[in-house]
Design brief:
Elements (H helix, E strand, L loop, with lengths): L7 H8 L2 E5 L12 H14 L4 E4 L11 H15 L4 E4 L5 H14 L3 E5 L9 H13 L5 E6 L9 H7 L5 E6 L3 H11 L4 E3 L3 H11 L3 E3 L3 H4 L7 H10 L3 H10 L1 H9 L6 H11 L16 H12 L14
Parallel strand pairs: 1-2, 1-8, 2-3, 3-4, 4-5, 5-6, 6-7
Helix pairs in contact: 2-3, 3-4, 6-7, 8-10, 10-11, 13-14
């Protein structure tokens, strides 16, 4: 570890910033992990797209369909390929023993941070105290900096006040807060320096830099589906906004609207993963299959996506995509 448990917050304030993308896990046709494809994606995102860090094997990475050994393997690939300082490894699971085993593995292989999402709770009468005890149990087992994650899939949302309480634990350093804007704005005010607050919405990222002084995008797929090696508009508007050049940043941010619209318009209900992977393939990245119970795109859905992609205005290098 590069820091002690008591120094985790200070280390995170120095190193957990910029654009962090949530990786999808590419699978081969036989549904094994495409390790070479994952490595290529990671290198491309960091080297060519200017992504600062990668969230590995979360919901977008289909952790729910992966064995414990496979999850550990993706951790190892990411740390080996792009380094521990660029990785935040998802240890989320409904089983607390699994969470702690993954957290200890992430720490042992040299990652700088982990993510642990709030668990599904079937009895909610003592929700806040249950969640406080849950995060304390994880926090006490490792030194590594922990990002909370609260999202509607848990069946509830952690309140800003509860998040601020949990952030008193020494190695709770950040939160991916997938909630309405008024909630994360309140938490930003409450938390001060003890918690880095972020959300996955790229639509709101520019406003959050300008209005809430955020410096961390944590994280979803836009950093690698809205950008190419010669068209890094998300990176560009982020850097300009960080420097206070708001007018130029907004103009570049707004210029991506056709890309956002094409991507969202062609995504079929319940096929987020398959659609994103096919879009990646159109970009020349490794996409691959999805694992059950997720659904693949139909030929008609692929054709509609391809047509929208070709007219969305992204500038592409002069290479043929793997989906062509």
């Amino acid at each position: 570890m590069k820091y002690s448990r008591k120094d985790a917050k200070a280390y995170a304030r120095q190193h957990l910033s910029g654009i962090w993308a949530a990786a999808q896990t590419p699978f081969n046709p036989d549904l094994s992990i495409d390790e070479a494809g994952l490595r290529r994606n990671l290198r491309h995102w960091v080297d060519d797209l200017g992504v600062d860090g990668v969230f590995v094997t979360g919901k977008q990475g289909e952790f729910f369909s992966m064995s414990l050994a496979e999850r550990k393997r993706t951790f190892e690939i990411a740390v080996d390929e792009i380094g521990g300082a660029r990785t935040i490894l998802s240890c989320s699971d409904q089983n607390l023993s699994t969470v702690i085993e993954l957290a200890k593995h992430a720490q042992a292989i040299g990652s700088d941070f982990i993510v642990v999402h709030a668990p599904v709770l079937h009895f909610l009468s003592a929700q806040d105290e249950t969640l406080m005890a849950y995060y304390r149990a994880v926090s006490e087992q490792v030194d590594i900096g922990i990002a909370m994650w609260s999202h509607p899939d848990s069946g509830y949302l952690m309140s800003p006040d509860l998040c601020a309480r949990v952030a008193d634990l020494p190695n709770i350093v950040a939160i991916k807060y997938s909630v309405p804007r008024e909630m994360y704005a309140k938490l930003t005010r409450l938390a001060g320096d003890k918690l880095i607050v972020s959300t996955a919405s790229e639509d709101e990222w520019f406003d959050n830099i300008v209005e809430l002084n955020w410096r961390l995008y944590l994280c979803s797929s836009p950093p690698y589906v809205y950008q190419t090696a010669i068209d890094r508009r998300m990176r560009d508007y982020t850097d300009l906004a960080f420097k206070g050049d708001v007018a130029r940043a907004k103009a570049i941010r707004d210029s991506l609207d056709p890309v956002r619209e094409a991507f969202k318009r062609t995504r079929p209900p319940e096929k987020f993963h398959a659609h994103s992977k096919y879009w990646q393939e159109l970009l020349g990245q490794a996409g691959g299959a999805v694992r059950p119970p997720l659904l693949e795109l139909s030929d008609a859905e692929k054709e509609a996506t391809r047509r929208a992609f070709e007219s969305c205005g992204l500038k592409l290098p002069n290479v043929r995509s793997s989906a062509a």
